[in-house]
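Hi F.,

I've been meaning to write this up properly since the lab meeting, where we talked about keeping a consistent format for the predictions we share between groups. The idea is simple: the sequence comes first, exactly as it goes in, then the structure tokens exactly as they come out, then a line or two of notes. No screenshots and no reformatting. I'm using this chain as the first example so we have something concrete to point to.
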Amino acid sequence: MHLITLSRASAVPATAVTACLLAACAPAGQTVHGVRLVTRGALTTCTHLPYAPFQFQFQRGKAIVGFDVDLIDLVARRLGVRQKIIDTRFTAITSGQVFAVAACDLAAAGMTINPQRASVVDFSRPYFDSGQALMARRDVRVTPDALGPGGLRVGVVVGTTGQAYARGRRWQTKGYENATTELDALRTGQVDVLVQDDPVVRYWLTDEANADFTLVPGLRTHEQYGFAVRKGHNPALLRLIDQVIAQIRRDGTYRRTYERWMGPMPPAATG
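Output, unedited:
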């Protein structure tokens, strides 16, 4: 995967967000074209790093790059402001906590839309089709029986739909804070197989360091990602995000961005 462009977005340490959450701080904001912003001159995005190819820190610098970052940069551009990225816990996003304390304007975290999350945040229209996938070492035989209770150890990221999927099937799971620690657990033999979103697994497998691993066929799920804003609080921002998603699907920007980060876009991909 070649990184063609770098985002101008800046990262704020997760510890800073935690401090903000504990103190219930509220930055001096502004309203631009009817959109409420928590920080003057910036569209503040909460995410959970790393989650390549959607958002991750570029190794040779401090910029945060990725598919989600590029799409939200387009929303920020429509408002005439820059995008500012804050790294925080995924569960603080899905619970709506980051919005309750005005830590950010929106969340972009490769986040699946589901009823539980939609009860506490407002989602944009779907912008990406995804699904769960299994990744394992090539010499490990992954069968339904092997994944049963007392079987293979399955790595999951805490708070994700992958964790919910595995638990619903009574797989023997081990939870990890983020996708990188989950992958490291597979590489070091702490788990035998991991559950992760299909585009993330496919991205990992483009890395020669993961040549000993493979995507296990047979898992069929369907999920859609959405960007999230505070429940009932910022309808103008939600409309703008939906408008940008619709426009870039029409003018080809979505396809170009998709192929920059993930390769050829399948015909059925949803924007």
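Notes:
The longest strand covers residues 42-47.
The two ends are 21 Å apart (CA to CA).

If this format works for you, I'll send the rest the same way.

G.
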